[in-house]
């Protein structure tokens, strides 16, 4: 029996979570798996209900759960709040609380999606990669400041990594590669940055422990170019927080819509699953949102948190069969062509499962 904590959040979050829940219920029925679902207030909804984007009732519920499925947070309604009190603050606190240091973002360009890819289709064909991004250290968490000196402003952000922070995420990269095509690209800027020098050293030290994995070192600027030149050469990329943030947004466009991409944030205890998109307040409540990123995030949950490989495969196969049959939400259709609603897409995938 698995207990799943749902954090629907704001904007399109509740709509896409409802569709993922539908698909999980279908998995339970088809495979005889028992799952319970409990929803908790989070983000703007947490602020409205409890005065806190990450309320105690949510933190307590998460501690009792087997895994967490998150929609998205934020929206214009809370934009006037100071940074420290905004919905987004809840996510940073949640990630730190869970210590989810490895963020996995798979990008798969299925043949039926090639026509949405901004590249020439022959370049993106066959792309099936995972970016493993370090999520809880580096420049986003370092000391920062602003001051005036010699009559002008100066500002600084510091990037710090300890050897153990690098080692644990690099191991996640190697282990991910071992389960796939066994190619690991470690992405850094070792010709300029000291943290990258340490990163590269640690990758080199760990490589002999994974003799079946072929390791390549790549500078971030070259990686960004290669991602557009020939993305199908990549299997697993492992990189630090800032580089991973930028590289994964770049790579997500290969699959045609931001609504398509799932993610898993793995740590020592309970893991967190969410689509990479935001709360999309411009389309909330209209049935226009694409729930596939969230449905695929739920599949990652089945695989990584529960070890239910066949069930995860079934969800992924169902998604691509529905796409093959020609069904699309509005973000993936050309003007003047038919689209299905968020809820219809969820039902189609659930039936296929
Ligand atoms: P955040 O800061 O929370 O990431 P954002 O403003 O960067 O939010 P999104 O909320 O992801 O961005 O929205 C960016 C654009 O993509 C919007 O036009 C939105 O409507 C669209 N979009 C995002 N997610 C989806 C989805 N699941 N289906 C369809 N369109 C989407
Ligand atoms: Mg965004």
Automatic annotation (TrEMBL):
EC number in record: 1.1.1.85
Gene3D superfamilies: Isopropylmalate Dehydrogenase
Annotated site, Important for catalysis, chain positions: 140, 189
Domain of life the protein comes from: Bacteria
Chief place where the protein resides: cytoplasm
PROSITE patterns on file: IDH_IMDH
EC class (word): oxidoreductase
Cell location: Cytoplasm
Catalytic activity as recorded in UniProt: (2R,3S)-3-isopropylmalate + NAD(+) = 4-methyl-2-oxopentanoate + CO2 + NADH
Binding positions (substrate): 95, 105, 133, 221
Cited SMART domains: Iso_dh
Molecular function GO labels: 3-isopropylmalate dehydrogenase activity
Pathway(s) served: Amino-acid biosynthesis; L-leucine biosynthesis; L-leucine from 3-methyl-2-oxobutanoate: step 3/4
Chain ranges of the Isopropylmalate dehydrogenase-like domain: 3-349
Binding site for Mg(2+): 221, 245, 249
Annotated positions binding NAD(+): 75-88
Cofactor: Mg(2+); Mn(2+)
Family membership: Belongs to the isocitrate and isopropylmalate dehydrogenases family. LeuB type 1 subfamily.
Subunit (UniProt): Homodimer.
Described function: Catalyzes the oxidation of 3-carboxy-2-hydroxy-4-methylpentanoate (3-isopropylmalate) to 3-carboxy-4-methyl-2-oxopentanoate. The product decarboxylates to 4-methyl-2 oxopentanoate.
Identification of the protein by name: 3-isopropylmalate dehydrogenase
